[in-house]
Amino acid sequence: YLIKRYVGDTQFVIMNKNIDETEVLKNEEIEIKDELNKKLDTENGADKITEIEEIISEDVKLKLHEDSKRLKEEGNTFFSKGEYEPAIDLYSQGIAKCPKCFSKTLSILYSNRSACYMKLDETELAINDCSSALEHDHYYTKARLRRAQIYETKDKLEEALKDYNEILSYDKSCQIAGSAAMRLPGQINERNEKLKEEMFSKLKDLGNMCLKPFGLSTDNFKVNQDPKTGGYSINFQK
């Protein structure tokens, strides 16, 4: 009546779905929980949860979910005290334990951990966690705002603008996103013009170096921009 299944080196005893009168014995289910708790760690716990979700009972999933929420609250306590590394450890444990079917909780855990990484100036890790949070909840505004703000600090203005516009697509009342969506296009144009000027300056220096042996300089060449097409033409002048 009972089927033995293995995930890695862990044995699970589960109910044969084809036999209605059989049940997983309570002590065997407790053993499954104990084995899960032993095997869940911050590096590979999430992968193991994915492997076993299809064969563990709903009660076990609920227990794991409650554990992950408890770890989240403990992490929040450390975060509020400015103790970010212990908070990261607790959020990581919560992520490892939380079954993927509880996507909202996973999204919050990733977002909270990203906040810790921001405080520690680990911006790439913070971006990665914001992205993971959004994979589990596309409309989690807090995670998307945080990622957009980090993009701004790293001068990834186009990526930031994309996130702000995405927020406005489903929440037009978000003032932070609205203000940024109005401000960033001008900043992007200003930055691009500055980069263009720097590029032309470097090209001019290179041109002068090449033309000097011939008694010429880039001043002998006039660059004109076509206002209609935005293209450039170069004319020689003595």
UniProtKB/TrEMBL annotation:
- Which segments of the protein form a coiled coil according to its record? none
TM regions (residue ranges): none
Name the UniProt record assigns to this protein: Tetratricopeptide repeat protein 1
- What is the organism field in this record? Hydra vulgaris
Q: What is the lineage of its organism?
A: Eukaryota, Metazoa, Cnidaria, Hydrozoa, Hydroidolina
Gene name per UniProt: TTC1
